Amino acid sequence: DTGVSQDPRHKITKRGQNVTFRCDPISEHNRLYWYRQTLGQGPEFLTYFQNEAQLEKSRLLSDRFSAERPKGSFSTLEIQRTEQGDSAMYLCASSLGSATDTQYFGPGTRLTVL
Amino acid sequence: RKEVEQDPGPFNVPEGATVAFNCTYSNSASQSFFWYRQDCRKEPKLLMSVYSSGNEDGRFTAQLNRASQYISLLIRDSKLSDSATYLCVVPSIYNQGGKLIFGQGTELSVKP
Questions:
Q1: Hey, are the CB atoms on B98 and A41 less than 8 Å from each other?
Q2: pLDDT confidence of residue B93
Q3: Residue in A closest to B90 by C-alpha
Q4: HEC string for chain B
Q5: pLDDT tens digits, B35-65
Q6: Is B43 on the interface with A (CB under 8 A)?
Q7: CB-based contact (8 Å) between B94 and chain A?
């Protein structure tokens, strides 16, 4: 399967713990996006990378959130000191290289904060 | 006003029915639009792109009304497999990043 992959698929954690998610984009896709989706809502943009450069961050991305894409390939999203309000599906998407290219989504990581 | 608004539904229709979903967007400068389909607990997948007045792909027709800032998706001869949430999507025009702005989605349930 050469689509976008995400790991883990599910994560249950206790409030206050740190969690890290990984996204592997489609090979040769330069752009990588992170979105968050809560129940009954559409996905909301968090941040995106062009190669290894993080070019935009949403105001939703508080200082407890950090994302990296160190070598321009896979990306990680870390949430520190998780809160119950962080419970959501975290979706990663990738696209070839321009803003108009189709974004292909991974299966998501479902986070539950107890 | 939200940037992209949809009727959340749910729409419950019998097989074979024709159903239409509406979506309004706030920024009159938007140039391109998408409909994504999302099955329960799965990722969104691109269904159709809309760049001009509309687009048709088999049983699916998307129409764009720029004057009213309104996009619609029409599904003819509904199948059980069409049951899903349909997301109206508008790329942000405020940067070159390609950030997508999603509506909250319209849930469709097709019954036998």
A1: no
A2: 73
A3: A100
A4: CCCEEECCCCEEEECCCCEEEEEEECCCCCCCEEEEEECCCCCEEEEEEECCCEEEECCEEEEEECCCCEEEEEECCCCHHHCEEEEEEEECCCCCCCCEEECCCEEEEEEC
A5: 999 999 899 999 999 888 789 999 999 999 9
A6: yes
A7: no
